[in-house]
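From the pipeline queue, job 12 of 40. The input is one protein chain; the requested action is below.

Action: predict structure.
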Amino acid sequence: MIEPRNDTGAAMRPLVIDLDGTLIHSDLLWESIVLFLKKNFLRAWQLPLWLFLGKAGFKEKIASQVELDPAALPYDQAVLALIAAARAEGRSVILATGAQRRFAEQIAAHLGLFDQVLATDGINFTSHNKARELCRLFGERGYDYVGNSRADLPVWLACEGAVSVTHKPFRLADGRATSHSGSVRGGALRALLKAMRPRQWLKNMLVFLPMLAGHEFDLWTLNAALVAFVAFSLCASSAYLLNDALDAQDDRVHPTKHKRPIASGALPLPVALMTSPLLALAAIGLCAWFSPLLLLVVLVYFVSTVAYSLVLKRLLMVDIVTLAILYTLRVLGGGAATMIAPSFWLLAFSFFIFLSLALLKRHSELFNLQRDGKEKTRGRGYTTADSMPIAIMGVNTAFVSVLVFMLYFNSSNVLEQYRTPELLGGILPLLVFWLGRLWVLAFRGEVNEDPVLYVSKDKVSLVVIVLCLLLATLASI
């Protein structure tokens, strides 16, 4: 333990570091809430009841329910460098946080940089409580303090060197202002938009398939499909925010996913967790206003995505089948909105081709994992040994989708809807070429972990899609 002292020499003053929002780009209370929800989603109703225990009691109760991985937190590298410099000068470094003591001690043990830990243990160790204890230990103006929020104002006022990790300085009551240290932190609004993954809305273009396959191009049908597109986009973004919040710790040790806004700490967890249900409610409200049938499909889609985020994506093969079903639900949603029932052929083709793409996604993840010298990824039910059987299933389902299209080409539906159905035969070699090429590139490791986004940027794929649409158009006129 460090004894109280009044030495005000800069080289002798201890450096006191806040944890939430300062040492890490996150908040341990919200991290623990997310971990609790991930493990016990059906017990979420208990959280409001625990608030009656008081803030310190609430933190202690949550901490007793979860296990935190200190290695999977978004540390501010600039603050770590500041601590290392202070230790090199022979200064004591103190971790003083409102987080629960067990978590704070685990982080301190993991980093090995702190001489003492002061944390919430019966009393919420923030603001005035923190300032009083630091003054008792080190005396008025006997320490330097690094913090990040208005709650730190009493602590800064009582310290000598007031440092904030935010670029905008805090003005203290004695006329001083905080200086800046820490890495650059972007705006939450920009991070929120990125976390909503608007690029992934391309997948929701599938709602237009029933309209295109049914050759219905009037204004009402187009508007109906647009409503479905907006509803699925809002719903998908809601699911992405929830998924990334629940997966934040797993994503932080992933070679690429650690850059996601929530995992990196650019988007605060409470913002993500509050925005997610708002987007879902907006999607449900839009569907309820427009069509009860569309509402039903979107509700099934949303429940499926939540189940996927909480449980299904951790189950071997269940996650892949669920992804294929989610793609197919978009087609059903388009049909529900436009009142155009998708044919058996369209649904079968959609399921198998998107099952192949889901398998390709998992194969690419395992390929990258093996390339990085790892055997298993966190939060998934696969190892690198599963790469080959997944690839075999993926190639097979790809050509099952070609077979479905070939049977459709010979069905009565084609004769009824197309004037020159022979032209549809040109789509078959294009499909074989495109799917075969995707899987060959996947075996080379050239397809990223999201094949749909890869296709949207791949010139060859775009040319094939345009040629298929052109052939289908010519066959119908």
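Job complete. The longest helix spans residues 219-246.
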